[in-house]
Design brief:
166 residues, mainly alpha, two-stranded antiparallel sheet, 8 helices, globular
């Protein structure tokens, strides 16, 4: 059975070339880092789109194996396992980067974020600093009619005590 993700990978000439060398997921060493994410952008972007942000290792392995089967390549289980684990670890690293809440410096990671539907806020526009934009956000979140925790103001300007449960 061929998966949609395997078909997407196979349709990209660069990934087809890498898969023929049995190097779909490219690793430069034992660690998965930002450089590996950037290097594997073509593999990771469709994987994030198809599998979401929390695929299991087994799910990643199924899709890697499906690609090699689609291409008619006989690959041993150890390679499938290694590439499945690497793909899953790259997804985990990507999730960690996204959770930090700031714009990543790598354009490839930014493109992956956009591809999965995340918005990237560009800070530091001319004439404003990060502190200015933060104070603007705080000001926009302030309510028009100030109240304290024990009072509620209704439309008639009557003040009612509210019990606060702790």
């Amino acid at each position: 059975m061929t998966t949609m993700l395997a078909q997407q990978w196979e349709s990209q000439p660069e990934l087809r070339r890498l898969a023929q060398k049995l190097q779909l997921v490219q690793l430069t060493g034992p660690n998965i880092n930002r450089d590996v994410l950037v290097q594997n952008e073509l593999v990771l972007t469709p994987a994030l789109q198809q599998l979401g942000m929390r695929p299991s290792v087994q799910t990643a392995m199924v899709h890697v194996k499906s690609l090699y089967d689609l291409m008619g390549l006989d690959v041993n289980g150890a390679l499938i396992y290694t590439q499945g684990w690497a793909l899953r670890r790259m997804v985990s690293l990507f999730n960690g980067i996204v959770r930090r809440g700031h714009t990543p410096r790598e354009p490839a990671v930014q493109r992956m974020m956009v591809a999965v539907g995340l918005t990237i806020e560009q800070h530091g526009s001319e004439g404003t600093s990060d502190n200015d934009s933060m104070s603007d956000e705080c000001e926009s979140m302030e309510s028009e009619a100030p109240t304290d925790d024990g009072e509620v103001v209704d439309g008639d300007d009557d003040v009612h005590d509210v019990e606060m449960s702790r």
